[in-house]
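hey so i finally got around to running both of the ones u sent me last week. sorry it took forever, my laptop kept dying halfway thru and i had to restart like 3 times lol. anyway pasting them below in the order u listed, first the sequence line then the structure token line for each. didnt double check formatting much so if smth looks off just lmk and ill redo it

first one:
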Amino acid sequence: MDGEGSEKRMNVKVCFLCCQYTPIHPENSLSQAFVSEFEGMHHKHPVQTINRSEVPKNYICITDKKREESLESLDPEWLNLLRAKK
């Protein structure tokens, strides 16, 4: 199975208010915890599970590796609240 094909079938959690998404890897418990954290950070936002291929190109992917880099583009007040939760 090639990487591109598997990415197209992958589901993601997407926040339509913040224009961000995170991949869902059902077999990976660390990923499941990260998805739960993503949902918590976007509490009361329009969060939905969709196919990766449906995510608009301008949305930011929030992953373990690039999380801090991607968060730098967010509102500073909201970013401070996120960091306070750690």
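and the second one:
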Amino acid sequence: MTEEYKPASTIEDGDHVLNCDGVHRVVGRYNYRDGDGIPSIAATLHPVGLGRSNGPWIARWKTTHHVRLASAADVERAVAAARRDVVDRGIDMVRRAMNLNRLPITAAGLHISIGLGSSTELRAWADALGVAPMETRGGGRVNRNLITDLGDGDLAEVKLFLHCPSDLDVCPDPWHEQPGEPTEPCPACGDQPPAVSAGVTAEASAITATALAEPTQEWLFTFGAGQQHDGRFVRITGTYATARARMVEVFGRAWCDQYDWRSFDALGLLDRMAELPESEWPTAATDEAPAGADQAASEDDGCPACGRLHFPWCAPYGGPGYTRASLSEVAGGDR
């Protein structure tokens, strides 16, 4: 790569310069004469990617000195390195605080969510961890994420969730780029040659189209009423419908919303909610409210403990395993 230099006299605010200490951004400059009367430049430099505690500092050059500029790739690498350092220091802080203070760890363990910039970055993480990313398709987009447990399921989880922006659902097979008209279907996506596609009616296409199976994934369910979450969630693996059916089977209608990991993390719920371990789930729901009834209609009086409109109620009036029938006995009245 060709190195680029410019005279110190032409350095401007916003330029990125490179020296033995790394990449720096020029945030201020002024002209002056040194003790020998030689025209000089004093530039205020801020380290790229680092916090204010690590800069800025003053660099001094004679106006005839040539300053090496940082390329866009140099800046990108500096920012990426600084981000890794910030994450590393943050995780190390948690580790040291946990060990030095002997902090308690519940069965839910630690959940780490990392947002990446592209599917290429996601695949780099997947290769490094030896875990295949999960893909779902819909609306002409491909959504990819990676969920893996680096802990011990019998003791504590160390759940890592990686996600990135979706990509256009475009088949990468060279079949679509060949100069002539193909005579066979695309081996990757099954698209038919143009001559075949033109002669197939819409009805035949509907019959012969292969429907993609709905993906199996983890779904997150919260408790509460409306958007008033009570701070807990459970995870159930399955399709959208089968996971929802399992939730109804166990908890009846005593829950709030269903999310995938992407929307759960985007709403910031992961940082302010705790997982309800499966060992604390009720064995079966005995919710006797008629099918289709509005859940809120049975909660108009609010929780006897805190007054909020949520269900199950706070201890000692509710919790996993309680039904509205049993709660009425605890509360001393009909619900």
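quick thing i noticed on the 2nd:
The chain has three domains: 1-103, 105-194, 217-331.
anyway thats it, ttyl
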